Amino acid sequence: MPEDTPSGGSKPDAVSISVSQSGWAPRTVLELDHVYEALGHKRRRYLCYTLLESTQWSPTELAAKVAAYENGCLESAVTTDQRKRVSTSLAHVHVPKLADEDVIRFDGTDEMIRPGPNARQVLLALEGMEASVDSEREEHTRSEIDDDEA
Amino acid sequence: MSDDADTPGRMGLEQVTRRLYDPAGDVALVTEIVYALADARNVSPTDLTSPTLYECVDVESLEATLFDGKEGPSSRRGSGTVTFQYADYVVTVWSDGWIEVSESSTTETEAESDRS
Predict the structure, then answer these.
(1) Across the interface, do B46 and A97 touch by the CB < 8 Å criterion?
(2) Residues of chain B neighbouring A86 (CB-CB closer than 8 A)
(3) What are B45-99's pLDDT values in tens digits?
(4) ipTM score here?
(5) pLDDT at position A20, please?
(6) Looking at the partner chain, which of A84, A85, A91 has a beta carbon nearest the beta carbon of B52?
(7) Which residues of B touch A90 (CB under 8 A)?
């Protein structure tokens, strides 16, 4: 809808124009619901990250990885109870949700989890966030150096 | 399901098991609910695979409503209960953390039996 352009704001000619500069949010970015749904929980963000490492996972492997990450230990140090608890939440909420959003596919026959049609978009969003965190950290470090020099 | 099912002192519901969820603890609400259901069915939690809880209730919304999903004192903590159906069971989550699993006998069992 062309009428959507806010009064006084100039209409951007590309999606890459940032919100802060133009005050105009690109519809294509705002409507990526599956990306926001997929990344709306810490365990799902972690699951999506693991998709960057390999193309297929068994639910047991994934549960062990998530439990190790959350308990700050090596996968070999994860107890059976810890793995089972994580595995339960993955099987009953996070895996079905990511499958619903077409981010992963769960194959019932070989019980393997693989990336789905929307995986690429979610991974790109994660990488974008990582880049923004990195640049912020860099800026922060730089300002600390400036403070020291002052 | 009729509306009378929500009135206090429900008939035809028999509590099978209950389990306490600690919002400040390490174990997720979804895990506690599945463990309670597994206990009710007398199976291992990892063997309780179908249906998934995801098909029956939005656990994240339930958690946000009753427990706010955050640690520490919060004015946004809800009070009351959320009840949903999981297969032949009725699960009630209380805002104090108790999860109750009841078996729906008579009426609901009859209603479900026309599937076969």
Answers:
(1) no
(2) 31
(3) 999 988 999 999 999 999 988 987 555 565 666 678 999 999 999 999 999 999 9
(4) 0.76
(5) 53
(6) A91
(7) none
* Residue A149 pLDDT: 59
| Partner A contacted by B46 (CB < 8 A) | yes
Structure tokens at A37: 């749904």
Overall average pLDDT of the A9-24 stretch? 52
Q: Using alpha carbons only, what angle is made at residue B58 by residues A71 and A82, rounded to the nearest 5 degrees?
A: 20
The arithmetic mean of pLDDT across residues A83-90, rounded, is: 94
DSSP-H helix ranges across chain B? 29-41, 59-67, 106-113
Q: Residues 90 to 119 of A: which have CB under 8 A from any B CB?
A: 91-93, 96-97, 100
DSSP assignment letter at A57? B
For the stretch B27-32, contacts whose Cβ atoms lie closer than 8 Å and that sit 24 or more positions apart, written own/partner, are: B27/A85, B28/A85, B28/A89, B29/B59, B29/B62, B29/B63, B29/B67, B29/B93, B30/A88, B30/A89, B30/A92, B30/A93, B30/B59, B31/A85, B31/A86, B31/A88, B31/A89, B32/B99
Chain A, 11 to 40: residues with Cβ < 8 Å from chain B are: 40
Is the full-model pTM beyond 0.80?
no
